[in-house]
Amino acid sequence: MDCPLTIDVNRFIRGGQLIKYESEGNARIGIMPRYGDADSIQWFKVKPNCTFHVINCFEDGDEVGVWGCRALASVVPGPDQGSKKLEWFPTKFKPAPGKPIEDAILEDHLLFPRPYERRLNVQTGDVKERNLTGPNHFPMDFPMINGAFTGLRNKYGYTQVGHCDSSPAPGMERFGGLAKVNFEEENNEVSIKVEYHIFEKNTYCSGAAFDPKEGGVEEDDGWIITFVHHKDTSISEAYIIDTKNFLNEPVTKITLPFRVPYGFHGAFMPIQLQITDSSNLMKLP
Questions:
Q1: Residue 5 in contact with residue 50, Cβ under 8 Å?
Q2: Contact between residue 249 and residue 228 where contact means Cβ atoms under 8 Å apart
Q3: Which of 7, 191, 193, 281 has the smallest C-beta neighbourhood within 10 Å, fewest atoms?
Q4: Rg of the Cα trace of the chain?
């Protein structure tokens, strides 16, 4: 991914953004054969965007499918020089006072990150692009899939659901739920099927990861594990959600002894626990 982001220290010293999205800049995607080198990269020009997180990529005949969470501006915070106060988030990412976030999404034409598809034809060089969800859906980012399908055509993806509500830290995006997207089932002409698992009020998550069930036979046989923080009670927990029954309550909520800060990324890996001979305490091998 080559997105039109620029880094300018002098601009930052003058009160502007260190990292800035250039809406008129060029964006492109490079595809390299698995056993290729730099000279074998094939570049495809795409519409200007910021795609920080890829959901999955796969081959489909002469096309390479690229699914990612695309935004129409940088979500990297920095002072907005056009605002009266140097708030650390672009003004256009915030709805006007008294207006719901859904109105801001409509006005900014899908500005926030959301699932997006590109089809890149390696024979003709043609590019096809489309939004996978419409303005009636929540912003989504930090995607994950069943790792066994990395590089293969998959059916399901999972994301964190963005909520840009009021916050003590201006512009701090929070994630108030999770989404399960079905790439093979479309609700209408402009959206694939999406299921939402929204948390309790003032509860936000971070670091979500997919854990496949041992012995699972279907792609969505697994769990989503995520850290959540309850703003009203200052309690942090780990939620484990059955992805087969995504709309149900978490199967387990584990209270944590400390808080995992917002913005942390997560990954899951199995580890073998052993019991010592001298005690019943558990320890890592």
A1: yes
A2: no
A3: 281
A4: 21
* 203-212 sheet: strands from edge to edge: 203-212, 222-230, 235-242, 252-255
Query: Rounded to an integer, what is the distance from CA 80 to the centroid of its chain?
Result: 24
Q: In Å, how far from its chain's centre is CA 188? A: 23
Structure tokens at 202: 């003032």
The Cα–Cα gap between 170 and 279 comes to 50
User: Could you give the maximum distance between any two Cα atoms of the chain, in Å?
Assistant: 67
Q: How many CA atoms lie within 13 A of 203 on its CB side?
A: 17
> Which DSSP string do the residues of 122-170 spell out, in sequence order?
TTT--EEEEESS-TTS--EEEEE--GGGTTS--SEEEEEEEE----SST
What are the pLDDT tens digits along the chain (285 aa)?
999 988 999 988 988 888 888 888 899 999 998 899 999 999 999 999 989 999 999 999 999 999 999 988 776 655 554 544 444 444 454 444 444 444 444 444 456 789 999 999 999 999 999 999 887 788 899 999 999 999 999 999 999 998 755 444 444 578 999 999 999 988 766 689 999 999 999 999 999 999 999 899 999 999 999 999 999 999 999 999 999 999 999 999 999 999 988 888 888 887 877 665 555 444 444
Tokens of 240: 């484990």
Q: 157, exposed or middle or buried, with CB in 10 Å at 0-12, 13-18, 19+?
A: buried
Q: Is 74 helix (H, G, I), strand (E, B) or coil?
A: coil
- The rounded distance, in Å, linking the Cα atoms of 192 and 180 is 11
Of 220, 210, 221, the C-alpha closest to 267 is 210
